[in-house]
Amino acid sequence: MIAELGLAALWLAAALAVLQLVFGTIFTFKNAEKTEFSQIVRPAAAMQGVLCALSFLILTWLFARTDLSVKLVAMNSHSMKPMIFKIAGTWGNHEGSMLLWVTVMAMAGALIALIERRLPERTMMATLAAQAFVGLGFYAFLLFSSNPFERLDPPALEGMGLNPLLQDIGLAFHPPTLYFGYVGLSVAFSFAVGALMTRQVTPDFARAMRPWVLGAWIFLTVGITAGSYWAYYELGWGGWWFWDPVENASLMPWLAATALLHSVSVLAARDALRAWTIMLGVVAFSMSMVGTFLVRSGILTSVHAFAVDPERGSFLLALLAIYIGGALLVFAMRAGSVTEGERFSLVSREGALVVNNVMLSAILGVVLLGTLYPLLTEAFDVRVSVGPPYFNPGSAIFALPMLLVMAVGPLLRWRHDSAKRIRPELILIAVLGLVTLAGVVAFAGIAVLPTLGIALAVVVIVASVMPLRGRKLRLLPLATWGMVIAHLGIGVSLLGMASETAFTQEKLAAVKVGDTTQVGPWTVKLDRIDPVAGPNWTALEGVLEASYRGGKPVTIDPQSRNFWSPPQETNESALITRWNGQLYAVLGREAGEGRWQLRLWWKPLVTLIWIGGMMVALGGALALIGRVYTDLRRRRVMRKAVERRSEASA
After folding, report:
1. Quick check: 161 pLDDT over 80?
2. Where is the Cytochrome c-type biogenesis protein CcmF C-terminal domain positioned along the sequence (predicted)?
C-alpha cells in the first residue's frame, strides 16, 4: 500500500505541474500585474515540492526495509547489505536517481515560489511556468518509462544487491551533490527563459538568479571533487581523472556554470553581459541534459553509467531536443530585444571575465567534441578511442591563458583600467612565474605540461591573495573572501595535478610473505595474508608494513574482495597520507610459488588536488552567504525607505 501512495504522490505532483504551466503561461502573456492566476501558480509549485519529497521518502523507506515486493528494491538491494548502503541504494540505480532529480527540482521550484519577491510578477510567473515545463518532461519519463514503484507478484525471495563498486560511503554523498548542481542549473535555465519571455533581463533578474547559479556551482564542485577521490581510492587503478565520458558529463556543466557564474555577477553588479548571461544559462542546463542522456541512455559502458534500454534513451533524447531546441528558439526570437547593457573597456575586470568565459567555453567545446566523437563514429561502425593525448593538450591550449587572465583579473578595476596602474603586481607575477619555470626546467626535467602547470600554479596562488593587500581584512565582504579562497583553491589543485603527473613513481612486484620492495622514499614489507569477512563479502587482506625513509613502520591492509550478491571481485586500496603525498597500495592475485602481486605508487602532493577542490567550494559557499546577506540587507533598507516615504506622505 505504501508504494502505491508514493506513486499517487508523483501523479498528483505531475497534475500540479500542468496547472502551474497553464496558469503561469496565461499570466505571463496577460498584460496585467495581478490576476487570480498568480494566486494559483505559487501554491501549486509549493505543493509539488511536498508531494515529491513524500514520494522520495517512501522509496527510501522501501529500500531501508528491503521490501522485495517492489521490483526496484529487488533488483538493487539485498537483505544482508549494511543499512547505509540500503539507503544509498535508493539513488544508486536509474529509477531512484531520476526520482531524486525530480524531487530536488520540485523542492527548488517550491522554494522559488515561497521566497522570491525581487522579480516583477510577470517574470516570476514565466520562470515558474518554465520550471513546470521542464519538470513535466521528467514526470512523464518517470511515470510512463521508469516507474520506481513497480510491483513484483509474487515478491522476490531475495534481492540481487547493488554493484559492489558503488557500495562505498562516497556513494551516499557523490550522486546527490551532483544532482543538486544539475537541478540548480535547471532553475537558472528557468530564470533565463522567464526573463527572455518578458524581455526583463535586468540586474534584479541577475540578483535573483545568482544564488541558484552559485549554489549549483558549489554542489557541482563538491560532487566532482568527491567523485574524483572516490574513483581514485575505490577503483584501484591509482588515477584521479580518466577522461571517462561519464566524468566528462559532470565536468561540462561545471565549465558552463563557472562561465555563467561570472557573467551573472557582472550583470548583477554592472548591468552588462545581458545576452551572454542568458545564452550561458541555456548552455549550462543543456550540458546537464547532455550528461543525463549520456549516463542513462545505455550508449556508454562505465562504472558510473546506468545502462538502460534504448527506449528510455530515445525518451531522454526527445526531452533534450525539446528543452534545448525550444530555449534556443526563444533566444533567437527574443535576443534582439535584449539591450546591450553598460559598456566597458577590454582592460577592465569585466573584460578579464569575458576573456575567461570565452576560454571556458572553448574548453567546454574541446571536452564535448572529445566525448561525443567516439559515439558518432561508432554509429558508422568505426571505433576510435579519445583519451588524455587529446584532452590534456586540447584543453591546456585554452586553460593556460585563462589562468593567466584569472590571476590578473581581480587586480583590475571595473569599467576601465590600465595596465600601468598595476605594473608592480604584473612584474611580481611575471618574475615569480619565470623563476619557477626556470627552476623546474633546471632541476626537475619533467614534461612540458606539468612544468607549465607548476609555474602557473605558483602564479595563481600568489596572485589570488593580492586583492587583500593594503585592505582591512576584518572589513572585507564575505564575497571578496570567497573569491580569494576559490582562486587560491584553483592554484592549489593545479599544483597537485601537475606534481602528481610529473613525479609519481610506480612499482609492480610479485613478493612472498616477508619480502620487501621499494617505491620512491618508501620501503614496503608484506607481513602476511589474512582471510577476512564482511557483511556481504569475503576478502584476502595483505598486511603491509611501510616505512618512510627508514622511519617507524606504518601498517596498512589492502584487500582483494569477493562480493557474493552480485558476484564480483574488487580491489580495496590502502593509503598512507603524509604532508608531501600519498603511498597507494593495491593487493592483486596470487602469482604462484607463494608470491602475491603488489602494486604500489608514491604520489607527491596528490592530496592538494582535493584540498584545492574543497577550497574552491568553500570560497563559493562564503560568496553565497555574503551575497544572500547583502541582498537581504539591501531589501531591508529599501523597505524602510518605502515606509519612511509613506509616513511622510501621510
Report:
1. no
2. 317-627
DSSP label of 233: H
For the ranges 85-89, 420-424, 636-640, the maximum mean pLDDT occurs at: 420-424
Q: Which amino acid is at 286?
A: S
Query: Residues 76, 92: contact at Cβ < 8 Å?
Result: yes
pLDDT at 310: 62
Which among 366, 378, 382, 384 is positioned nearest to 299, based on CA atoms? Answer: 378
Instruction: Give the torsion sign (CA, 204, 205, 211, 214).
Output: negative
Number of alpha carbons in the 13 Å side-chain half-sphere of residue 280? 29
What residue type is assigned to position 280 of the chain?
A: L
The pLDDT tens digits of the residues spanning 474-490 come to 888 999 999 999 999 99
H and E: helices and strands count for the chain: 17, 10
Share of residues in the chain with pLDDT > 70 (%):
95
Rounded to whole angstroms, the Cα distance separating 468 from 487 reads: 13
The answer to whether 504 and 520 are in contact (CB under 8 A) is no
- Compute the mean pLDDT over every residue in the chain, rounded to the nearest whole number: 89
Which residues, at least 6 apart from 294, have a Cβ–Cβ distance to it below 8 Å? 245, 246, 249, 300, 305, 371
Question: What residues are paired with 522 via a beta bridge?
Answer: 519, 548
Residues 558 and 548: beta-carbon distance below 8 Å? no
Task: Please state the φ and ψ torsions of residue 387, each to the nearest 5 degrees.
Answer: -140, -155
Beta bridge partners of 574: 585
Whether the predicted pLDDT of 398 surpasses 90: yes
CA pair distance 195, 499, nearest whole angstrom: 45
In this prediction, residue 303 carries a pLDDT of: 46
Q: Which of 81, 31, 83 is nearest to 198 (CA)?
A: 31
Reported as a single tens digit per residue, the pLDDT across 58-105 is 999 999 999 999 999 998 888 887 888 888 889 888 899 889 999 999
Q: Is 563 left (phi over 0), alpha (psi -120 to 50) or beta?
A: beta
Query: b vs e for 56-85, b when ≥16 Cβ sit within 10 Å of the residue's Cβ?
Result: bebbbebbeebbbebbbbbbbbbebbeeeb
| Integer Cα distance of 83 and 65 in angstroms | 9
pTM: 0.92
DSSP-derived letter for residue 595 is E
Collapse the DSSP code of 99 into the 3-class scheme (helix H, G, I; strand E, B; otherwise coil) and give the result.
helix
- Expressed in percent and rounded to 5, the helix, strand and coil fractions of the chain are 65, 10, 25
Classify 339 as helix, strand or coil.
coil
Percent of the chain with pLDDT over 90: 58
Q: What does 502-550 look like in DSSP terms, one character per residue?
A: HH-EEEEEEE-TT-EEEETTEEEEEEEEEEEE-SSEEEEEEEEEEEETT
pLDDT score, position 299: 65
Question: How far is Cα 457 from Cα 440, in angstroms, rounded to an integer?
Answer: 12
Q: Is the pLDDT of residue 341 over 80?
A: no
| Three-state secondary-structure class, residue 238 | coil
CA distances from 201 to 127, 328, 335 (A): 12, 16, 10
